[in-house]
Design the sequence.
């Protein structure tokens, strides 16, 4: 199976509360925060690796995993880390972060997918910086692919994926036939979430994503990494989303400490009028 | 001048209440377009009957596409019809439920439209719509405008009040299902396993009681009596879900559900950034934690430093007393 995974780097999401917005409101300043792979994209990469192996012998790769990102030269660090984790080759679309919105990214990715012709395209459900949650769905439409968004479980079948989607109030299960697109949610990296046809159903993965071993990090430096120009892929389409200003969320001040549940109920009933 | 389209949500034979929140967003944006708004209801059997519930909101028309093949939602079958109707409008909007978030970006791509997801507010500024969007897990808000001829947006349900009926009677018209593309032939709806619950849905509840990892195996023993007493939905921290004490879809937070009830109880939850991102819009926040330095106390209105295994049952008793008083 050939899988293409689209990834994005984001400012360290574990310190997202440290982003600064200057009084002018003209930008979100992430200075001082490390670049990390978007967590949901990390899960998509882990999913791709699980689908191209027998979980019991992951060193023997049973398919091809291609990672793609859009961004300046230094986003290659993120691609190299994906290669070290197990992806086979990488593609970077040269552009400036500020020149992109979901519409342009999905158009560019559609061209890359058309060239690569993978069986499955995997993405995180959203990037945790812009939080727009749109590229996967838009890409599926451009390609006229079936899609399963917010995937919590994936079972590979012959030429199809059986996908459990996390939806409001339950789990919606879809079968999508190749070529197909899946965006993944948090629970996809649980121990019994993803099964390729090669992995025995009794096998349990370690919870979470795998990490690269040192030799793999060295080897990753030699894996192929192609660079493409954004303008060759978007057919002259222009950026259509403009941010006018940014602002921090309203401060929430710490309230009071109550002595016991009696005082708590009294305050809720008589002060907050919340009961 | 352009018109707007509200995409209603219909499931299980019923109109979803989420629809009314998108109506509010569209009414707020409408002055920028200068036109009227229509409501589109797409669904299986029962859709036409439900359209009557949408005629009192001031829409120019209520459009209904009822087709047996649309009984189970898939974006591949729904998007062509929504795009076909949407292309005559300047704005296509829906509430950001999981269906809205799945469907509308796909519709946007079909219309070559730019998309603003999960909007917290919209305003009409001199002929342009400005969308206020939460970013960086709620640590920033961005105000953006879209420059494509058709714009597509989803409304964060908790940030828009449900529209109230204003009387009048919008005419109801049938629309035909648009032919789906090749994608529709390769997707098959298998099942929808609903979590049947007497409790309100998390994204819809006035009161939420959320538990953390500290409650361990006693999660339901501790949380259910309190939820019953308050008529509340039950939520959980990511740590509690990851540890398996609570189901995954209970998760409140940046990567789970974003909620903003009138009253939120954080029980045994220390207050990780990603949890706070999902609930800090709540009107009143109560925290019960035995660690007096837990970060959750920095954002709670009422904090109780106590052992939750004693405090929560005592709270249930106190609420019962208060109710009968």
Sequence:
């Amino acid at each position: 199976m050939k899988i293409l995974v689209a990834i994005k780097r984001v400012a360290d999401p574990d310190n997202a509360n440290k982003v600064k917005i200057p009084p002018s409101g003209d930008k979100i300043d992430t200075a001082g925060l490390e670049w990390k792979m978007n967590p949901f994209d990390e899960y998509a990469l882990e999913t791709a690796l699980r689908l191209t192996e027998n979980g019991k012998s992951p060193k023997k790769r049973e398919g091809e995993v291609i990672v793609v990102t859009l961004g300046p030269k230094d986003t290659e660090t993120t691609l190299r880390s994906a290669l070290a984790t197990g992806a086979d080759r990488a593609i970077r679309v040269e552009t400036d972060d500020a020149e992109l919105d979901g519409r342009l990214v999905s158009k560019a990715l559609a061209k890359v997918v058309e060239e690569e012709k993978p069986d499955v395209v995997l993405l995180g459900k959203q990037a945790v910086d812009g939080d727009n949650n749109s590229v996967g769905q838009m890409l599926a439409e451009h390609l006229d692919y079936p899609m399963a968004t917010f995937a919590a479980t994936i079972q590979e079948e012959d030429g199809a994926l059986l996908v459990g989607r996390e939806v409001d109030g339950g789990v919606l299960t879809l079968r999508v036939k190749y070529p197909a697109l899946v965006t993944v949610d948090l629970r996809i990296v649980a121990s019994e979430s993803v099964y390729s046809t090669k992995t025995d159903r009794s096998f349990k993965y370690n919870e979470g994503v795998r990490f690269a071993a040192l030799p793999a990090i060295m080897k990753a430096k030699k894996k192929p990494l192609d660079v493409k120009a954004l303008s060759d892929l978007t057919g002259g389409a222009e950026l259509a989303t403009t941010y006018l200003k940014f602002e921090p969320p309203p401060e929430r001040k710490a309230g009071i400490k109550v002595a016991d549940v009696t005082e708590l109920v009294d305050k809720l009933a008589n002060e907050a009028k919340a009961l | 001048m352009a018109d707007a389209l509200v995409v209603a949500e219909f499931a299980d034979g019923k109109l979803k209440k989420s629809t009314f929140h998108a109506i509010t967003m569209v009414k707020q944006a409408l002055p920028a377009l200068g036109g009227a708004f229509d409501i589109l209801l797409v669904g299986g059997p029962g859709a036409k009957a439900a359209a009557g519930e949408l005629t009192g909101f001031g829409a120019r028309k209520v459009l209904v596409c009822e087709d047996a093949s649309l009984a189970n939602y898939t974006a591949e079958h729904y998007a062509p019809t929504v795009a076909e109707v949407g292309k005559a409008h300047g704005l296509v909007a829906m509430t950001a439920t999981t269906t809205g978030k799945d469907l509308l970006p796909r519709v946007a791509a079909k219309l070559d439209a730019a998309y603003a997801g999960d909007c917290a507010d919209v305003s009409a500024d001199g002929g342009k719509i400005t969308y206020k969007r939460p970013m960086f897990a709620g640590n920033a808000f961005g105000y953006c405008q879209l420059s494509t001829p058709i714009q597509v947006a989803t409304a964060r349900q908790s940030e828009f009040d449900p529209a109230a009926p204003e009387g009048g009677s919008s005419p109801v018209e049938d629309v035909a299902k648009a032919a789906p593309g090749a994608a529709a032939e390769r997707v098959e709806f298998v099942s929808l396993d609903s979590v049947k619950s007497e409790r309100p849905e998390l994204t819809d509840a006035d009161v939420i009681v959320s538990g953390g990892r500290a409650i361990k195996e006693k999660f339901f023993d501790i949380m259910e009596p309190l939820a019953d007493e308050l008529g509340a939905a039950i939520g959980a921290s990511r740590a509690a879900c990851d540890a398996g004490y609570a189901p995954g879809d209970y998760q409140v937070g940046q990567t789970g559900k974003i909620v903003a009830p009138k009253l939120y109880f954080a029980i045994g939850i220390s207050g990780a950034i990603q949890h706070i991102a999902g609930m800090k819009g709540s009107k009143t926040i109560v925290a019960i934690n035995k660690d007096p330095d837990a970060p959750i106390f920095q954002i709670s209105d009422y904090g109780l430093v106590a052992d939750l295994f004693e405090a929560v049952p005592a709270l249930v008793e106190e609420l019962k007393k208060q109710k009968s008083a």
